[in-house]
Design a protein that fits this description.
Layout: H1 3-23, H2 39-83
Helix pairs in contact: 1-2
């Protein structure tokens, strides 16, 4: 039921660690370099964090939807029980 939320949270932790380490990659010694060696790893890290957050939100929303459907079904069943005449 919570597999997307748990998977997203684990992925988010790993993505944050990856991004932190990507920021520690040293800059190039050449001053003419426009793009530094850490640019692409940082870009991947931000994309990974973003997709992890999307997975967590998607999982949370599906859990909430499932809970509301279960409550709706339960209230319909309770309503049917209350509307049936009691047999003796």
């Amino acid at each position: 039921m919570y597999k997307d939320v748990i998977g997203g949270a684990v992925s988010l932790i790993i993505a944050l660690l990856y991004t932190i380490f990507a920021f520690q990659i040293p800059d190039s010694n050449y001053s003419s370099d426009v793009i530094q060696p850490n640019f692409f790893p940082i870009l991947i890290g931000f994309a990974w964090v973003l997709t992890s957050l999307i997975l967590i939100i998607k999982g949370y929303m599906s859990v909430q939807k499932l809970k509301s459907e279960q409550l709706k079904e339960q209230s319909e069943l309770d309503g049917e029980k209350n509307n049936q005449p009691e047999s003796e």
